[in-house]
Fold these 4 entries.
Entry 1:
Amino acid sequence: MAQIKSQEHYKAIMARIDEIFFATDESTPKNDKRLLELDVLSSMVEEYEQEHFPIHTPSLPSTIVARMNERNYTQKELAALLGISAPRLCDIIGGKKTPTYEQARLISKKLDIDPVIVLSL
């Protein structure tokens, strides 16, 4: 299959995808040549984006800080919610220590953080 080789090529393909997307709708027959082209171009873009714009799993410390900010918790309030000491939470947020299994479970559950992030899998 053809590959996107430059940022300019990527932008041109994205513009073409926009054209096709807005020129078709749910009633467009599945075998319409525009939809077939859209499928091919989308696959090329996906491959290019995975290589040039990868999305990495966020770190546990940055995710905890984001949740603290979203919910307007102080570090002391969050430590109390999780049932751990403020210094221990500070070490976890600072990346100096990793949470125990029980702490990881509570962080995941109480802050609604994906276990993959909590356990850094």
Entry 2:
Amino acid sequence: MKICVFGAASTKIDPAYIEKVEALGRKMAERGHDLVFGAGGNGLMGAAARGMRQAGKGHITGVIPSFFRDETIEAIFDDCDELIFTDTMRERKAKMEDLADAFLVVPGGIGTFEELFEVMTLKQLGRFDKPIAIYNLMNYYDEMETVLFRAINKRFIRANCRMLYLMSTDQEELFDYIEHSRPLGMDVHQLKDG
């Protein structure tokens, strides 16, 4: 499968996150998967790609807007098997979404949050039925899950939307979910009011 990893580009994060996501990249390759990612060379994007390379298998596709290179916004991972440049961030996300068979979200910032909620929204609206797994590494996403549950309890989000994704601290559980995911079997009206 082609698994799209969304995650941090920051160089300032705790090295423990880097180590765990490098291990995740190795495990992804060892399980026979390919990586699609935002082509960042630093942070958790770079860690996932380095882990894949350390395993010595798997195809790495990076997708990044050309202005990241032109304006030196962040380092680009220089060992991609395929590097795709887009004009905009929207095109970047659309390309990654099209290429991916599944999504694996690791800790990140504003861009990662946006990517996560975009794929959750697309799944809610029935645009695809790809698995979305959230790696709650070092309990990074606990508060986000609290916010989601609050929105469900206050009826801003349908309770069935909890089935759009799996959140776990366990890498094996995440990969098992991705590899054995089945269609939700629900239409948009069971997932969204409006």
Entry 3:
Amino acid sequence: MEYIKEVFAKYDKKCIRVYQAYNRTIAEEALSLQTFGENFNLNRMTWIKPSFLWLMYRSNWGTKKNQECILALDIYQDKFDSLLEKAVLTSPDSILFDGNQWEKAFGETTVYCQWDPDRNINGNAINRAAIQIGLKSDILRDFLDTAIYRIEDMTSLVHKWNEQRKKGRLNAKELPSECIYPVRDKTIRKRLNMI
């Protein structure tokens, strides 16, 4: 199956929304500080995901261990765009690099891009890809310091929607509305294998 590779997200004129799942300690601290605090491990890579339903698939609607709390992060669009400019695919399928060029770029970057099949409310793959962006090292610290406009707790809503879903009563129109986020730069599109 050929997947549509575009960034599908909820966004406005200033921010784009991404999602993450954490344990209660990290989530409550992040909500209080409106960034991530001392319980957040800066030495690990963190992944931000614009697709709400992909994160629901990944976290099993906030029921997996250490993924019980679902956070929505509204991040500034210019910061998100900057991440896309720096991102390198996690596998060498870009038409911009040959294998050696990709290895060099992958070894030097601190921003990673991965495409996975996006999901519907029941966790089934659909014909578009969901982007994940991985951050580590200095770029992660900068992200925490300068990129986050607001952090919102979606945990109780996710639990409500999951109960409705299990009973066959969830209307997908209630979920976050996502559309194509414009990525017009041709170099970025080639490097991230966007079609």
Entry 4:
Amino acid sequence: MKNKSPLLKRDGFQSLLSSLICVILGVFLGYIVLLLINPEGAWKAIVAVLKNFFFYPAGPARMKYFGSTLVKTAPLVMCSLSILFAYKVGLFNIGAAGQYVAGVGACLYAALALKWGWLPCMLLAVCAGMLLGGISGLLKAYCNVNEVISGIMLNWIGLYLVNILLTNVKEPTSPYTIKIAAGNPKAIMPSAGLDKLFGNNQYVTIGIPLAIIAAIVIYVILERTQFGYELRATGNNKNAAKYAGMKEKRNIIVTLIIGGGLAGLGAALLYLTGIEEWSCSQSSVPGMGFNGIAAAFLGCLNPIGSLLSSFFIQHITNGGGYVDKTLYSSQISDLISAIIIYLCGFVLFFKTFMNSRGQKREDTRFAPEPKEPDKPAPDGEKPEGGDAK
């Protein structure tokens, strides 16, 4: 019968424990910051961050704001999938933020200027993200340009181009784009009855199940297909993959194209619900793409884990809005969320630490005992292993 490995050495347990450690540390440090700023309301503030929609006593209100949290979780899931898909191939797709922005510009322009329906708007957002990801992939594969550098540059290029593009569909008296519900209702994604399930929340659409399906599809591709095996092999050792006949340049380009498409889809899943409008005077890249990095690592680079980690990050982000603003500044909610999200990036560190500690303990346990030196035989007796001289 095969011996089972100790619980601490099992990959699933290590991932879960590492994520929990990061979450607890993040919440604890956030509480310490609140104590330093104003100890009077620190406990109520950290509880408010963690409660989020449980802040409301009535069930229908809870379900309504729970639905709003899920609506904003869907794009975060897509951004985390974009990050982890590239990371599995040895690439760090920090350009997911710019690919997300490109998706925003494409879907909103198609919806408000071209008056397209929700499905072609969503597909155009995917194509826009794929285009930006493909540029990084081509530069990496054929010019050996680091994908981090090209991704950061494209983030800002994409932001300013989208600002310029969407000024054509913004409201006359504000920097925000026209509301989709007023400008083109057919561009809003269908709810398929989910809005009634979440307290008649009009923003709840099929974007939520689409994000779950996308996570499952990415898991199957990476873990159960030959294509996924080739991608992971390229990430583990590009030279070995090339020697085995795999097309490493093609894999790099395809990976970043798929990653860009996922980020672009995330933009469509948010903006085609009508829950937000884009500000054409925006001077910073949206945090959704960068939060996807934390969500990917908190989920231990597992597509299914990214679903849970994305929900948690969005949960505390929304929960920060319930902090008492008479005791703390309006930015305190962002600060607490940022501390917790920052700690989420240490998941792999804790996992590696547990692996090293477990290996040392095993080496110590099974180390051979030192041999005692042979004792000289008394006079008149034969020594062990031979005749007495």
